[in-house]
Structure formats: C-alpha cells, structure tokens
Write a structure and sequence with these properties.
This protein is α+β, with helices and mostly antiparallel strands. The chain has one domain: SH3 type barrels. It is built from two helices and five strands; from the N terminus they run E-H-E-E-E-H-E. It has a five-stranded antiparallel beta sheet. A hairpin with a 2-residue loop joins strand 3 and strand 4. It is globular, with a radius of gyration of 11 Å.
Amino acid sequence: MKLSDLKKNQTAVVTKITAEQTLKDRLISFGVLRGVKITIAECAPAKKTIKIIVNNTMLALRAEEAKCIEVKI
C-alpha cells in the first residue's frame, strides 16, 4: 500500500521508500525511515498535497512523493 492511499487520521508504518536518491535523502532527513509510524493529518482537495505527522513533526508532501512511500497498516 502507498502512503497516498491512506485517509485522514490513518496511521501506518513505512516499509519501503522507492524514490530517487535526492528525494530519499530529503525524506530521511525529516525522519521518514523504514519502520517509522506516519499519521495522515490532512489531505488537500484532490489529494495533491498530504500533511503527515512523523515523530511529532508535521510535513507536507506532494502526491507524487507520497506514492514513493510504501506502508502497512
């Protein structure tokens, strides 16, 4: 399942990040790592951007970026 498939207030654990190294490095710097819990805080209309909570930090991701993060509930 992709992070972009989750709905508001759902929590999941990161299992894999399949992105270019630049994006992967940026996500890692924000604490988005394999085994970390992520909660969907909000979704913009049409899910173009997704606000997530990682380790008490809120981040906004584009839908394309969220599709690179595989999760399990």
